[in-house]
Amino acid sequence: MRIKAEASDSLMEELKSGVIPETVREVSKDEQVNLDLLVQRIISGRVVILRSRNHVHAKPIGVGEGLRTKVNANIGTSVDYQSLDEELEKLRVAVEAGADTVMDLSTGGDLDRIKRAIISNSPIPVGTVPIYQAAIEAKDKYGSIVEMTVGHIFEVIEKHAADGVDFITVHCGVTRRALDALMEQKRIADIVSRGGAFMAGWMLHNKAENPLYEEFDRLLKIAQNYEVALSLGDGMRPGCIADASDRAQFTELITLGELVRRARQAGVQTMVEGPGHLPFDQIKANVEMEKTICEGAPFYVLGPVVIDVAPGYDHITSAIGGTMAAFAGADFLCYVTPREHLGLPTVEDVREGVIVCRIAAHAADVAGGIPGAREWDSRMAEARKRLDWEGQIRLSLDPKKTRSAYEERRAGRDDACTMCGEFCAMKLVSELLGSDKLVRC
């Protein structure tokens, strides 16, 4: 059910007045984090709760300081592949694989119908990039994306909010100042963000400032009315490691830091998006810089991809970067699939992308002392010690693949796996040096 926008307290404002909604209590319990501490982090803007007023059947997800690293899965049609059924299957698989959120990045077909179907079928928060729809509709109507009107851009944003989107990416930091920095410094890959390219093209054609920056208060009002979190997009993110950490990227980041403060003052929950492609040695500094400039705002990174020469394996290159980013303080990882840079992902690509990204996130959580992370691994170790195969399958990050791998090479035995068989170290120690037989040497 779509709720008409009307003045009401935002989540941040409710918490400041002493009212604690059930969504916050649910996140506190799920994350094993003290409720009072969580409330203070939300009020300060260091944690956001993703759930729109119009997507009430979605599980509320907390993103930010002291919480489990979250994983997003991108789905959505393209001009060449427009099957709603396939995208709904991707949604189902992403949820099954353990994604915390999905983003509908559709650019082909009936965009409103696709978005609404994904929202109504999603038990987890959904994000979108409204500028995609505004640009595509302008092209259909006027023949070019640069013919978008400011009024239409904001109409599309409000439509997404009214439809129940939980967070939206808005490229407010692609300003004239950032474009000047880009053109002065030069890059190999220029702008690789689709939304950033749409916005930059509009600005250059119309010789105007970014309306999402100029009319940021208008954007904040929409976010307030629907309790939609803003994800401040990184339109200047580097698209190859050679372009990483340049003036254009950091010019945009400084602007986003200013907008984070304005959003907090308005009671609007806000995240900041980040690169992209980064060499491994620059990841820690990039995360720390975002956390400083944006005053601890949750950081949402794509990857980051650490090398450019592994197409077909970029779910792995991004997982390497994702673990380092999350350990350094990033809060939210956007998955990369094996088909990144090559084509629209398949259903299986989505499943594999989610699992690999979850591995990266969990590795960082274990190292960072997130509540419950190490305990999960300890339970797995105990199951392995007992040669409890069902327990190992149940505790595994990907039970479906774990069971398949075990059953395929089981060879009819349950007392050990077929890697070591009768020479299994745990089996031998259990039989020969059990706890009741241990002696000191």
Automatic annotation (TrEMBL):
EC code: 4.1.99.17
Pfam families listed in its UniProt record: ThiC_Rad_SAM (PF01964)
Keyword Iron-sulfur: yes
Binding of substrate, residues: 74, 103, 132, 171, 193-195, 234-237, 273, 300
Transmembrane segments: none
Pathway recorded for this protein: Cofactor biosynthesis; thiamine diphosphate biosynthesis
Cofactor binding annotation: Binds 1 [4Fe-4S] cluster per subunit. The cluster is coordinated with 3 cysteines and an exchangeable S-adenosyl-L-methionine.
Residues involved in [4Fe-4S] cluster binding: 417, 420, 424
Enzyme kind, highest EC tier: lyase
InterPro entries in alphabetical order: ThiC (IPR037509), ThiC/Bza_core_dom (IPR038521), ThiC/BzaA/B (IPR002817)
Reaction(s) catalysed by this chain's protein: 5-amino-1-(5-phospho-beta-D-ribosyl)imidazole + S-adenosyl-L-methionine = 4-amino-2-methyl-5-(phosphooxymethyl)pyrimidine + CO + 5'-deoxyadenosine + formate + L-methionine + 3 H(+)
Cofactor(s) needed by this chain: [4Fe-4S] cluster
GO biological process, one term: thiamine diphosphate biosynthetic process
Signal peptide range in chain numbering: none
Binding-site list for Zn(2+): 277, 341
One Gene Ontology MF term: 4 iron, 4 sulfur cluster binding
Keywords: 4Fe-4S, Iron, Iron-sulfur, Lyase, Metal-binding, S-adenosyl-L-methionine, Thiamine biosynthesis, Zinc
Source superkingdom: Bacteria
Biological role: Catalyzes the synthesis of the hydroxymethylpyrimidine phosphate (HMP-P) moiety of thiamine from aminoimidazole ribotide (AIR) in a radical S-adenosyl-L-methionine (SAM)-dependent reaction.
Record-stated family: Belongs to the ThiC family.
PANTHER family: PHOSPHOMETHYLPYRIMIDINE SYNTHASE, CHLOROPLASTIC, THIAMINE BIOSYNTHESIS PROTEIN THIC
Name this protein carries in UniProt: Phosphomethylpyrimidine synthase
Taxonomic classification: Bacteria, Bacillati, Actinomycetota, Actinomycetota incertae sedis, Candidatus Hakubellales
